[in-house]
């Protein structure tokens, strides 16, 4: 088959546009290449099939290796092809072909192997990986299960408990874990990988081919398997895919492998067309889209090494922890030495907690502590490239801080406000160079919540916006850009949703009915239960402050006020929208009486609400508010609105966000 003389470097053999091979010393080294992540496209499937068929009959090939070009082995099936009908050869045909090969096929895992990429390596006869490789079957996160043999091969290598955990949660594991669990056979340092691979191939050619589907399931305790399955079902919260993953993985113990593989494939194809999978695909691409802005394409981010954080309370300390994890040097600022010491202690306690739970190594903890200082001297902030203010959300407090910052920090230091409700343009007007002011609206707790609304103020410079987005990425945040308006994207939609839910109470629904409908739909907690948990008094105080400015002709629902007037401030006071005997949430008949009294006062004849009515009405109102945000130019894309509600307000990702869901409700 090879036609080169021993002295020349052979030309690669092209099996398709995405699969090439080189024959060296009787070994066919295959490389799959589909940048940026080697997603397994039709061209990869065709190329692998061609290569395997030709290698099978080539007398000069004794073994085959498979690698990915670049940093990935392969990140899974090409999701962009999911809306097309499946075409031959399918991925399960390819994995079956790999496993059936009569010459040893060795996975030479150069980087991350996810989904169908991981299924390819599971079908190989031996797996050797670089130390930095990662592994996962994240299909459930896309509303799917593995569709190319993963559900049957993984348990035969790792046992059911690990397979259920990996496939049911979609988690990614390290090479060290993969070796420990039996998913791979060997790890090698990158610089000695070629040698280690050569040795592995020699060993494989001398031993009997080990086909994964022919292996016995490792013996395990039945209770442990049941517990692993139950854990996934409990966490599924309205999603179909995790339960299907459990069902299909469990077939490894009860069905002949070919029947189980057929059931796996049929389930995968059915789920691929499900509303859940379509919604999660929408979210996947929405997240990738969120970072792209044509208007910013020509600008480069400035270098940011030092971040100042003015105000190290609950929000500021969370922001500091996120920024320390992003590798930044942090200078906190408080007005007094005592407050600075308390802020330093708060941040340190959060870092210690991460260390104790194993999320932070000792070296990382020490490194981050060394990068942290909190001072009562505002001039310390003069070293900062970016200052994020996280002081009390009051106009006088913030504008005073802005003016003091103006005289302290460099003229080009970016100043970001974390305000939720104030107008950042008015704050920007307080200082020189307002084009360096931007909003960074974090969600609490800021080191945990992934969402960040980046507020593009009237005068914000494009370069400042690009720099803020870059910082957001390093802070591991999902950033969406929004314009200035009361509540930005999230709180504005949330207010419309909350208002509508309260009007529904007047119209005939009860709080627990609305909450049950929301929880059934996929929210972790119903709206009224969330209110009780957060406490009702702050919103009540705000409504009273704003009462004189309210348009008397605008509809107003008084039910929440009546609760507060009756001392029902939520869970802390033992009662709110529910009662909490022994801390347990229960429906309170007094609330029904209170709501009925308001209906009678307003002459409203109550109507019955089904769960479907409740959800449709709430979705409708959120989508209408979303349309307004789009037409006002506050949000650039409907999918950004979906991301905000999913990541900041508990909207279930598997429904795609309010804009997507409202659209699909109509279809
Ligand atoms: N198919 C198609 N495109 C993909 C893809 C995939 N599986 N995975 C990533 N991409 C694309 C992204 O859309 C993005 O495209 P863009 O540049 O046009 O926006 C580009 O690759 C880079 O992706 P990211 O921006 O996400 O890069 P990161 O480095 O941050 O993350 C990743 C890389 C961890 C691989 C992440 O993209 C990811 O999690 N991808 C999805 C992995 C997955 O779910 N695989 C399972 C697919 S289903 C399957 O395999 C079914 C099988 O069982 C039959």
CATH architecture of the largest domain: Alpha-Beta Complex
CATH topology of the largest domain: 2-enoyl-CoA Hydratase, Chain A, domain 1
Q: Which kinds of small molecule does this entry bind, naming each only once?
A: 3-hydroxybutanoyl-coenzyme A
Structural class: alpha/beta
Q: What is the general shape?
A: globular
Sheet with the most strands, sense and barrel status: 8 strands, mixed
CA radius of gyration: 29 Å
Separation, N- and C-terminal Cα atoms: 56 Å
Roughly what is the average pLDDT, rounded to an integer? 95
CATH homologous superfamily of the largest domain, by name? Answer: 2-enoyl-CoA Hydratase, Chain A, domain 1
Strand order of the largest sheet: 14-13-12-15-16-17-18-19
Q: What amount of the residues lies in strands?
A: 5-15%
- The figure for the number of domains is 3
The share of residues in helices is 40-55%
Throw out a few tags for this protein.
667 residues, alpha/beta, 2-enoyl-CoA Hydratase, Chain A, domain 1, Rossmann fold, seven-stranded mixed sheet, 26 helices, binds 3-hydroxybutanoyl-coenzyme A
Structural commentary:
The protein is α/β, with parallel strands linked by helices. It has 3 domains: 13-272, 2-enoyl-CoA Hydratase, Chain A, domain 1 (Alpha-Beta Complex); 294-482, Rossmann fold, CATH 3.40.50; 490-633, N-(1-d-carboxylethyl)-l-norvaline Dehydrogenase, domain 2. The strands form 3 sheets. It has an 8-stranded mixed β-sheet, sandwiched between helices. 3-hydroxybutanoyl-coenzyme A (3HC) is lined by residues 36-37, 39, 75-80, 91, 114-116, 119, 138-139, 142, 144, 146-148, 150, 288.
